Amino acid sequence: MPSVVSLFVTCIVDQLFPKVGMAMADVLGRIGYDIDFPEAQTCCGQPAFNSGYRDEARNVAEHFLRVFRESEYIIVPSGSCTSMITHHFRELLPDNAEVGRIEAKTWEFSRFLLEVAKVEDLGARMACIATYHDSCHALRELKIKSGPRRLLSHVQGLDLREMDTAEECCGFGGTFSVKFAEVSGAMARGKIDSIKKTGASVVVSIDSSCLMQLQGALHRAQLPIRTMHLAEVLAAR
User: Of 4, 104, 158, 205, which is most buried, counting CB atoms within 10 Å of its CB?
Assistant: First the structure.
């Protein structure tokens, strides 16, 4: 089973949440994988793609294909970036045969643990009440729902409580939160109300962008609730 995995850490993890990337590497290393980090990696192209800059997004996608061409597995700590690679590269590069090969070996982190590594209990320990937020791309495009919850169920001391709006958008949506700030803020505040009802002290998700949006709303509301990526929880001892 153990082999080499290549990490694509995404822009937001690289620039704002490097601990998420380190936690992902720690978890994968703990279960026997050797870690490869291609230093030439940049972006998946999603910001440009979603903003209508298809030529620019195409250039970024082509660079991604070159960087990860020799990788056996590409592991991504983000549903939205995984979705961009596995669902939308084909739109940008319909005649590039390399796209299909990249799609087949690109895995969102939690799905890789469950479906490839076949591991559910990472030996993590964290005494807290937590709730899980389903990020839009992970849930709706990748159909990831129960997997992260199964992994969290094995964390010793963690009491996972469902919020009543777990599947509702946090309001981030990349450039959506900039173009429609008032709507985005209202959506985030709705999520915060739901989080409060659970009594959780930690909000967990598999997308750092969602967690950034929620942490900002929590901070503005002066609530003592923190956000954590699933990789950080699974790396906890």
Answer: 205
Task: Report how far apart the first and last C-alpha atoms of the chain are (Å, whole number).
Answer: 24
**pLDDT of 224-235, one tens digit each?**
999 999 999 999
Within a domain: residue 120? Answer: no
What is the span of the domain harbouring residue 82? 4-115
The CATH number that applies at residue 57 is 3.40.50
Is 8 in the same domain as 109?
A: yes
Amino acid identity, position 105: K
Which phi and psi (to 5°) does residue 71 adopt? Answer: -70, 145
Looking only at Cα atoms, what is the longest distance across the chain? 51
Within 10 angstroms of residue 237's Cβ, the number of other Cβ atoms is: 8
Does this model's pTM top 0.85? My answer is yes
Strand 156-160 relative to strand 125-132, pairing:
parallel
Using alpha carbons, select from 81, 27, 31 the residue that is nearest to residue 231.
27
Q: Starting at the edge strand that comes first in sequence, how are the strands of the sheet with 226-229 ordered?
A: 156-160, 125-132, 202-205, 226-229
How long, in residues, is the chain?
237
pLDDT of the residue at 1: 53
Which of 92, 115, 138 terminates a domain? The answer is 115
Amino acid identity, position 4: V
